[in-house]
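Would you mind giving me a polypeptide sequence along with per-residue structure tokens?
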Amino acid sequence: MNDYLIGLITDRSDCLNKIYDEAVKNHIPIVREDMASLLKVIVHMMKPGRILEAGTAIGYSSILMAEASSSDCIIDTVEIDPDLVVVARENIKRANLEERIHVIAGDMQDVFACLDIKYDMIFLDGAKSRYIDVYDDILRLLKVGGVLLCDNISYHGKIYDEPKFVDRKHRTIVANLRSFLERLTSDDRFVTSILETGDGIAISTRIK
């Protein structure tokens, strides 16, 4: 999306502006502006009571979703990097959202396997090669009627390349992402659409 359109849809709170600047300064990846806007719209439309996020980073998308949701929405967000966990918790406390956003330190697959809560929405923005590893847990944790959002599924455009043309260091990630997308789009328990917003996003509704 071009800068003009991004400028039209970018509307951050003061808190998010500070976190955004911090992320840019320290080269910490957060959701792109067009993806952030879409995420905000989906949360507003869905009005979820409980959200599960994988890939907290410094809390930008968690806070964005909390701001877009109702005051009783709870967000459980998982982050494996202990340094980022500390920063995320500080940012969430600064936003006065520590009662609503719970940062869980640990590996996405390990944490998902231990959870026993039904979610209205799951947002995957963690390690792309691991999406396939949590597929069964997603089915267990996501309510019928719930929404699954998977960010960065084009993986900088590499997902479109023939496997033999993908750099060796990226082949496993691309292969796992393809396996995940093929399983998701062929699963009759979901209705899925894939958009080229940001670095690609899969949006799925669980129908049964």
